[in-house]
Amino acid sequence: MPLLTIENLVVEFATATGPFRAVDGISLTVDEREVLAIVGESGSGKSVSMLAVMGLLPWTAKVTADRMEFEGLDILNMSEADRRKLIGKDVAMIFQEPMSSLNPCFTVGFQIEEVLRFHLGLDRKARRRRAVELLRDVGIPDPEQRLSSFPHQMSGGQCQRVMIAMALACNPKLLIADEPTTALDVTIQKQILDLLMSLQTEHGMGLIMITHNMGVVAETADRVIVQYKGRKMEEADVLSLFENPKSNYTKALLSALPERATGDRLPTIASFMDGFEPAGDVR
């Protein structure tokens, strides 16, 4: 049984001019130990799809699906209390922009320990011991002292490591990483990716990597889903996608990579208003 199964996910937001469909019929599965990359331009619905899974969309969002299950549990229709027990423990997410995702009013130690208190019920000494272990595992130097640091006292790379530590605190079965390297410089990006893949292998998690970076896709993914304007354009294993893309949008996306440029200027993806259709019967 797959860890996560989604069939025909639709997300609409209420606007002054009527409903706006941000996600339009996305379906996907993720297995244990599998790395699934979801790739596409900004605004293609990648993050919204996963925030729907986490139950973190605002009240203006209407979420429907034929099926949304985690290990057979109906997470779309389960009670809020049951979802709160599941999310953060068995399903965890690393959010974009770690400097703004961490609460600036609390120390990183408090924020990690809060996860352990809520989901595992550990006492104070056990929470602190586990928090130190987690910071050490993600490569934070002097973890005992860093527990007392506030987010603004740490670098962007360190804050991203803290976010990873929080996500891994309860040994989740599925980890969703939303653009985990976007705000970091190239050297730190490589370190964070290596750390994520090492921890994914060590813990045997399923991993969903949301990105617009095709280099990250090539380096990390087993399977790839390409999204455009809320729709799935193509799904393939990573080698097939790069060597033999099926949809015109995927071909345009790959042709815009600098390493594939053949002239003086990079080719551009057709304008947002131009139509792209999925490859075959992709859902």
TrEMBL record:
Taxonomy, superkingdom: Bacteria
Membrane-spanning ranges: none
Gene Ontology MF, one: ATP binding
Subcellular location, record wording: Cell inner membrane
Keywords from the named record: ATP-binding, Cell membrane, Membrane, Nucleotide-binding, Transport
Keyword Isomerase appears in the UniProt entry: no
Domain named ABC transporter: residues: 4-254
UniProt topology in membrane: Peripheral membrane protein
Family: Belongs to the ABC transporter superfamily.
Protein's name in the database: ABC transporter ATP-binding protein
Taxonomic classification: Bacteria, Pseudomonadati, Pseudomonadota, Alphaproteobacteria, Hyphomicrobiales
